[in-house]
Amino acid sequence: MTIDTDMAAMHADLDAETANAVREKCAARVRKIVLEVLNIPASDRKRGLPDSAGLHIEWGADSLDLIDITMSVEDEFDISIPDAEADLIDSIDAIVDRVLKGPAPKGALS
């Protein structure tokens, strides 16, 4: 199973242990994207930041980084994130929440 729209549909129906495992698998993929986009080396202390850490403040992402992260997440999980939602995403946890929500409704991409 890939973590994409199928995962979002299943997530609501899973027992807590399985839902947590799915969430962690999704978070690992999002973390990898953030580390790659921000070009954070293995030795950087930022690798130890919690998933709730702010992308701007703690991770040091600028607005272009956030656009790149959003586009990479959309490609990785085969979803579309409306601009209005993308502007509110400020942590790995928030990205994972959005991915688990599933694809955007048609017409909501502006």
Brief overview:
Pfam families: PP-binding (PF00550). The chain is mainly α.
Structure, explained:
With 110 residues, this protein is mainly alpha-helical. The protein has a single domain, classed as Non-ribosomal Peptide Synthetase Peptidyl Carrier Protein, Chain A (Orthogonal Bundle). It has helices spanning 5-11, 16-37, 63-77, 83-86, 92-101. Helix 2 (16-37) crosses helix 3 (63-77). This is Phosphopantetheine-binding protein. Keywords: Phosphopantetheine, Phosphoprotein.
Number of domains: 1
Number of strands: 0
Q: Kindly report the average pLDDT value.
A: 85
Order of helices and strands: HHHHH
CATH topology: Non-ribosomal Peptide Synthetase Peptidyl Carrier Protein, Chain A
**Unreliable runs, pLDDT <50, ≥5 residues?**
1-5
Please state roughly what percent of the residues sit in beta strands, choosing from under 5%, 5-15%, 15-25%, 25-35%, 35-45% or over 45%.
Answer: under 5%
CATH C-level class = Mainly Alpha
Please tally the helical runs, counting DSSP H or I stretches of 4 or more residues.
Answer: 5
Q: Any idea what the radius of gyration is?
A: 14 Å
Described by strand count, sense and barrel closure, the largest sheet is:
none
Distance between the termini: 30 Å
The class by helix and strand makeup works out as mainly alpha
Percentage of residues assigned to helices: 40-55%
Organism: Caulobacter segnis
Protein name: Phosphopantetheine-binding protein
InterPro entries: ACP (IPR003231), ACP-like_sf (IPR036736), PP-bd_ACP (IPR009081)
Pfam families: PP-binding
